């Protein structure tokens, strides 16, 4: 059995949990008709992707909003845990532990203390990620060049920058 630090959660299952999981899967499989079992996962995945494309084509702005805010909500807590900002403090041997040892006494309201606070409060980290995702969404929408200004020209960074500068003048 692997050793985990006190701020990490084991993702392994106990024998009882594995037995319960197996019984639930068997009960669910017995309820699925044979015709549904024959349908491959690939065709279901293709249908899902096609449905998502239709939704995106109808509502591209809403999809960008959902993608960026939900992506931020999921990504920020995961990145904090990967960096070693654990639920009970910096995880031993991690980047956060190295940073704390390099800083020495951590000052209140510093970047390190804020990241550690978010690492200890995953819900607040998720909300912070949502705010970051929302800010990214607003930035993307505000810097978007209207189709009327493109005139069939291929958009490049320089052409976008030129158009933005012309707009400001």
From TrEMBL:
Bilayer disposition of the protein: Multi-pass membrane protein
InterPro entries for this protein: IFI6/IFI27-like (IPR009311), IFI6/IFI27-like_sf (IPR038213)
Cellular component annotations (GO), alphabetically ordered: membrane
Membrane-spanning ranges: 65-88, 114-140
Major subcellular location class: membrane
Skewed-composition ranges (Basic residues): 157-169
UniProt KW keywords: Membrane, Transmembrane, Transmembrane helix
Compartments where found: Membrane
Protein name, entry field: Uncharacterized protein
Organism expressing this protein natively: Orbilia blumenaviensis
């Amino acid at each position: 059995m692997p050793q985990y630090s006190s701020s990490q959660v084991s993702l392994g299952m106990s024998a009882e949990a594995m037995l319960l999981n197996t019984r639930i899967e068997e009960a669910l499989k017995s309820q699925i008709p044979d015709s549904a079992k024959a349908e491959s996962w690939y065709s279901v995945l293709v249908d899902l992707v096609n449905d998502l494309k239709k939704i995106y084509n109808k509502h591209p702005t809403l999809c960008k909003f959902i993608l960026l805010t939900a992506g931020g909500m999921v990504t920020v807590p995961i990145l904090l845990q990967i960096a070693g900002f654990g639920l009970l403090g910096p995880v031993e041997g991690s980047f956060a532990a190295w940073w704390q040892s390099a800083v020495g006494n951590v000052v209140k309201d510093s970047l390190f203390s804020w990241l550690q606070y978010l690492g200890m409060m995953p819900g607040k980290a998720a909300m912070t990620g949502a705010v970051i995702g929302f800010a990214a969404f607003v930035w993307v929408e505000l810097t978007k060049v209207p189709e009327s200004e493109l005139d069939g020209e291929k958009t490049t960074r320089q052409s976008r920058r030129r158009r933005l500068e012309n707009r400001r003048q």
